[in-house]
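note to self: dont lose this again. the chain is below, predicted strucutre after it. 318 aa total, dont forget to put it in the shared folder this time
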Amino acid sequence: MTWKAVIFLLWGAAAVCQAASIESDMADSIVDRAAYSGRALLPDFTAGPCEANPRSLDQVKGNLYRHTTGAGLAVHSGLVLITGEGALVIDPAMSCTAGWLRDEIARRFHVGVTYVVYTHAHADHISGAQILQQSGAIVIANRRALEPILGEKIPTAIPDRLFDQDLKIVLGGEQVLLHRVAPSHSDSMTMVLFPGYKALQCTDVCESGTMPYNDFLDFYYDGWIETLDWVSRQDVEIVDVGHYHPATKADEAALRDYMVDLHQQVLDLVRSGQSWDQLYRNVRFSDEVRRWIGFDTMHTLNTLGMYRWVSNHRRGEW
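---
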């Protein structure tokens, strides 16, 4: 690692460190991966042959690129920063395409992958990181991601470095800011800002004219709204959501409006005494939301997820 590939930890107040002090400053965040050798793993559902799987590495702006793997609504994506000191890759997504991404970066830019950043501990985004780690990449995640990776036996790389709240990476003179947000789509969510490009990686919490997935799955309503409020305050023009196509802050404002409205409708209907069989038939959606990708398949599932949240987070009379 050269002096340009420096990681600074921020614990509360901002701190500026010299390259010579990096190891001592990061001692508490270094993971002993050997302690987890031989751990139990589930089969890697992303590892099978996928020669026909669509994949791309397209320029967003300047040295910022976006990788994709998968077709149609199944596409997964992450931003990639290319510098003369190496590349930073967010969420490789699939083991069967991670080697292609590594080789494509080397072929086109003549550098290796220096860092891999996990946005959260869900296998459909962090699979394949073990391939880049084996080629020398340092894998970084929020500290809350380690337990589910281990506990859920996710067959991907154990992180090399963990952070608590904020982390700044400087690679080839470019800044990348990692920020842990409130529990939303999981309790290990990391937002990744590229201030030089006014770009943000907001995987799964943000949407791009698309419905949130299924019944919200690993879901925390209050933190999701808090995260979307945080996004609204950022100076960004490009938001990669980890799927589909990039979004804007206006898309995230519309998503926030939808989620707040859905929550209030479900809460009001539950308080009026309606059962699920009644309730889901009486939720109303705006014309804008009805035009979102996935509305027909997801709107009842979204309502179910919100119903579960509301039911579990109200006291009533008991």
